[in-house]
Every structure is written in C-alpha cells, then in structure tokens.
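Same chain as my last thread, 618 residues:
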Amino acid sequence: MNKRQKMMRNRIVISSIALLLTFIFNVREMGVAGLLIYLAIYFYIGWDVLLKSAKNISNGQVFDENFLMSIATIGAFVIKEYPEAVAVLLFYQIGELFQSYAVGKSRESIAELMDIRPDYANIEKDGELIEVDPYDVQIGDIIVVRPGEKIPLDGVVIDGNSTLNTSALTGESVPLDVNTGENVVSGSINISGLIKVRVEKVFEESTVTKILELVENSSSKKAKTERFITKFAKYYTPGVVFGAIALFLIPTLFFGEQWNIWFERALIFLVISCPCALVVSVPMSFFGGIGGASRSGILVKGSNYLEILSETEIIVFDKTGTLTKGTFDVTALHPESIDENELLEMAVLAENYSNHPISQSLKNAYKKTVDSSRVGEYEEIIGHGIKAEVDGKIVLAGNDKLMIAEGIDWHDCHLTGTIIHVAVDGEYAGHIVISDEVKPDSKEAIAKLKSLGIKKTVMLTGDKANVGEQVAKELGIDEVYTELLPADKVEIVEKLLTETSKRGKLAFVGDGINDAPVLTRADIGIAMGGHGSDAAIEAADIVLMNDEPSKIGTAFNISKRTLGIAKQNIVFALVIKFAALLLGAMGIANMQMAIFADVGVTILATMNASRALQVVDK
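reply #2:
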C-alpha cells in the first residue's frame, strides 16, 4: 500500500468512526450544531471529489462521476438527509481505495518487468572496473558482468561461464547456463560467475530497451471493447443527469406531486447512475491481461491485439526458427564399409576448409580438434560437395550429384533432411543425415491450439516438399506450403484471409527478416523474440521472449480469459445499474441500495478484473 492509499485509508477509518458517533449521540437532532458536524465529516472525506468536480466543470468536462457524487450529496443536504450524504461519499471513497489497490497490483506486475532496466555497465580500464552509462557503450566494447548484476547490453561471452536468471524476459524460472561463445541478452541477471561480454548492439537497440518500449506503449492501443465503453460513458452520463432532472420536474410540475419525495428519488437515481464500474474495470481487465502475459514472457503491444487474438481462427507458422530450432545438426550416421566414428571423421576432415553451414554442423557433431595436417589437396565442387586428400586417400563428401559424377555406387536414405554421402578411394563409405530439429514443444503447441478452438493450422516454408511435409505430418499441422519465396508467403496469407469468417482473424508466427512482410499483413503477427530478427520483432504485434511455440497457446488462453472477464464486468454492471435505476425511479430503492449499485458494483467488478493478472494456462 503506497502513501496515497494509506492516507485514504486513514480518512476512511476516521470518517467511519465519526459517522458512527453521530448515530450514538443523536447528532442529527442538534440543529445547526449537528449540521456543522456533518458538514465537517462530509468535507473531510469528500473534499477531493468536490475539488475535482469544480476543476472539471471549469474545464468544460461536466459529466463525470465526481459531478454526480457532488450533486447527489449536496442535494441530500438540501433535503436534510445528512447521514446519507456523508455515507454516499464515504462508500464512494471505499470503492476508490479498492480500485486503487487493484490497479496497483496490476502495475506491480509491470513494474517487475520494468526492473530489468540496467543502471550501469562495467568497463575495464587500467586494471580497474569503471561504471559507465549503458548509453555510452559502443558495439565491440568489452563489458564485465559480476555475479548479481544485470546484463546491460546484448552481446557474446568472450571469457568465463555462468548461470543467468532470465525469468523477467522469458517467464521461465529455470536458470540458463552460458559459456564462452554464447549469446546473452540485456535484462538477464548474472547469478554465479564473472563473465566478459563483447557488445553486439548499442543500448537503444538492445533487447531490454525494445521490451520496455513495447510495454510502455501498450496502453495506447485500445481494444474495441474499451473504445465502446469510453463512447458509451460519453453519452450515458449526461443522459442520466437529464433523466434525473426529468424524474424530479415532470411529476412535480405536471402532476402536482410532492417535490421533496421526487427530489430524493432524483438524487438516488444520480447516485445509482455512476458508470465507475464500467469505466474502471474494463480497461483494468485488459491492463491485467497484458501484465499477466508479460509475467509469462509474452509481450503484447496493445490491448487491441489481445482482443484480435481471442477471435483468431487460423494460425499460420513459418517453419525454420519457429517450429524448428533453426540450427542444422547431425541427426543420423549410416556407415557402410567403415564404422560411425570414422565416417564422421572422414567427412569432417574433407570439409575442414569449408565455411558452409553443413561443414559447421559436421564439426559440431565431431566435438574434437580437427588435425589440419592430415588434409592435403582440397577442391570444392560448387553444387556437388568436396573432394579432398585425407591421410593419402581421396575422400568425397557431398550430395548424390557428386556420387554420380564420380561414378560411385551409392544409395538414398529413408530419412528426411540434407544427406551427405561419403566415399573413400572410390568405395562408398556411407552417408550422414543433417536436419533442422523440431522444437521439443512444437507438437504440444499445435495440439494445444486445436483444443482451444483454432480451426486450421498452416505451415509455410522455403524447404523442399519432402522436408516440409515430413515436419507438418510429425506436428499434426493441417496444411503445408513448401519451396516458397517471401512474396509467395504473403500471397498465401492473402488467400487464407478470405477463408476466415466475418469475425474470425488470422495470426502469423515467424522469426526471420523475410517474415516481416507477412507479420504485417496478417490480422495479428507473433514473433519469436529470443533469437528472432529485429525486423520481425518490430513488425509483430505480440512477441514471445523464450521462442517456445507452446507460449502461443498461453497467449491465446490469456486473450480469451481477458475478454471473458471484461464482458462479465460489462453485463454485470449494466444489469445491476439498469435494475437499480428502475427501482430508484419507482421509489423502491433507497439511498443504501443506491450506494451498493454504485460502490458495491465497482468494487466487485474491479476485484473480478484483477483476476486477469492470474495466468491460468490450461
């Protein structure tokens, strides 16, 4: 509870005790002295409401809850309902305190994320560590991160190893181990060892800066439901004010009814009519949903995107880096005339001087230091592979075209992936399968989305048909399009958009630079933020910080729940409001019922809205 909330709590407690004492000592019967006592309590508990009302009127903003409370309570004094006037403001302030506390809890979750902002960076100079502003660090500079410190900028570890706490970024509580040569992102907390990091991005382009910008700007993009409530309140509030005036004037002027009875009914009507429950709880539902998502490592750029996601019917995926790891690894060794170790060794030695990604994959699988002295003459045959002299033998490593060109009797592999055939001195030695592995949770993600009501899942890839179809079949994806260029992806998304229903939406999930146009064209774009390109993150509407496809289901679930809570509040508030307004106009509702219809409904709706902060991922 902050200072302002404590002051409000104290005012409420003191005013409640004072109001209770007025009943005990029958202050109402003390005449002018009693009136002055009630006025003192009234101004103590409600001076800020009266002041806001006066300021708003001077600025031309007449019709708001402060105006309604002021008119209703001043009117209560006119008809000598002093305790009721004080009680209305007292309960109104209790509702405001509950609302402030609930909003504060929502803001705390965002503040936890904001705490990732680094205060300084350590640069080593003359054997000493100097703290500098992260803005002053340039690309290529070496920074030192000690245990317990935040990593201030994105970079590569050049010395040391440690364990990082990345929960503020990814929502994952499991620490991440990092070693020399591995990437680290700003906002993570170094837990164990001292590491030296070569900076890869300036602070303005770093992960932490982009995250904070996304969160800070998220409230500016309102959902249709929020915009409806804002527009509704704009017409509703003046409508009920004129309705209260009519309720008082028509019976008294045209039907000769007693003015004091209908004046009190008009005041009750005004108290009931306050739209606080709607104006506060609906935006808070979305704010809570965004906060809950951020705690799960899902950054939503605006509440409108939560609403769009909840209406999504078709989800389209890029393959490489989204559903698969995006790193090519040796997944199978099939030797013929030599054993597995020798097959891999011959391929690695032959590929030793190549910079091709396939060569790097082979070296990663070998996990030993390559003895370059064993390699003699070397020839790279473009589009075919490598021909090299290894230990005095002629080794061929490449595709089937190389085997055919050299007259080697080879055979194909039943597995899907890139096949590296190896031959030694004209004899077929076997083949190695290199493929992009599917992420561990991709299959779970697809199944989860279908269980949540997604009608169709689609995968787009530039890979060959056999590779794409194999991955789609393994994951249970409904449709797959292969051998695509970036422009082809946009064209297919355009076609799929026509298949959605009138209210249905299409989401696209990607991570690469070439995915940016498709992310922009889809109804909602979702980017992998951990290793995704800056262009994809910039173009997307939602960013998954830990690159796990299963988080898409979590985001979808959060959006559905947030919309459900917002709609519950709208229905609940409107039903209670209109029922109470009708009862008030008929003279059945008293001032106590009016207070519940305003303050009670606001408190209940606000408490319900705060549930959006809790991520229930089923």
